[in-house]
Each structure stands twice: as C-alpha cells, then as structure tokens.
Design a protein that fits this description.
The protein has 140 residues and is α+β, with helices and mostly antiparallel strands. Helices cover 26% and strands 29% of the residues. It has 3 helices and 5 strands. It has helices at residues 8-11, 34-46, 96-115, and strands at 51-55, 64-66, 72-78, 81-92, 118-131. Strands 1, 2, 3, 4 and 5 form a 5-stranded mixed β-sheet that branches. The longest helix is centred in the last third of the chain and has 20 residues, at 96-115. The termini are far apart. The mean pLDDT is 80.
C-alpha cells in the first residue's frame, strides 16, 4: 500500500487577510424589478382567506370569480419604497373596513420581509363581492 502526502497548502489553515472587509456600499446592490414586487404582493394577498381574483375570459367577457388564483397587482418603485395597487374580490358578508385593514398590514409585512423595501401606500379596488351560500335562502 502506498501513501501519498497531502500538499502543504491543504494542511495549513488560511492566513487572515491583511485587508479590512469592504464596506457594504462597495459590495454592490440587488435590484428587484417592480413586476417582481407586484407578484409578491399578489401572492401575499392570495394568502388571505377571503380574497379572490378574476380568472379566465377575454376583455372581461366570460370571466369568473376564483379564490384559487392571485389577484391582480401593480407596483411602482421609488428607490426603496413600493407603491402597490391591488384589484381583488372578497367573500360577502365580511366586515370590509377591518378586512381591508388586515389585508394591507399582511401584504405590507410580506413585501417588506421578502423584498427588503418599505411599502409606502397600498390602494385596493374591490371589483366584486361573492355572497356565501349559507347566507342566502334558496330561491323558489
């Protein structure tokens, strides 16, 4: 059996660098496009139980209400500040004001956590309300 000696560089620990680590400003930046932030906001909104979106159809004809897909979202970026616009539908009856307030807080938290930018404003259009079946009596 033959043994092979390891090279000298494999046995010695690396020497500490004499250069100081560079400041964060010199390391570069990560740029997140507005379209990506909008998709993250749409996904965050779809995580909310009472939120749905329009699905299918062409030019609004034949579209249906869907609680399994993400609502429409748009984003404008101003430096590290995001301005969001959501177009969605909600289950009805639901307390609209508290639901929208909770939705804004949830979307804002998720975008800030995942993108690392602050959310300045979120506008929400409620395009439709979907009445739940247990509220209405059957029609005769």
């Amino acid at each position: 059996m033959t043994t092979v000696a390891a090279p000298e560089s494999a046995l010695t620990p690396p020497k500490p660098s004499s250069e100081k680590s560079s400041p964060l400003a010199q390391r570069g930046t990560t740029t997140i496009p507005a379209q990506v932030v909008a998709r993250i906001a749409a996904q965050a909104a779809s995580e909310f139980a009472a939120v749905g979106s329009n699905a299918g159809g062409v030019l609004g004809i034949g579209s249906r209400r869907n609680f399994g897909s993400r609502p429409e979202a748009q984003c404008q970026l101003y430096g590290q500040r995001a301005i969001l616009h959501l177009d969605l539908g909600l289950v009805f009856p639901t307390p609209l004001s508290s639901t929208i307030e909770d939705l804004r807080a949830h979307v804002s938290r998720r975008v800030e956590k995942l993108c690392g930018m602050t959310v300045g404003k979120i506008t929400i259009d409620i395009s439709w309300l979907n009445p739940s079946n247990h509220v209405r009596k059957p029609l005769r």
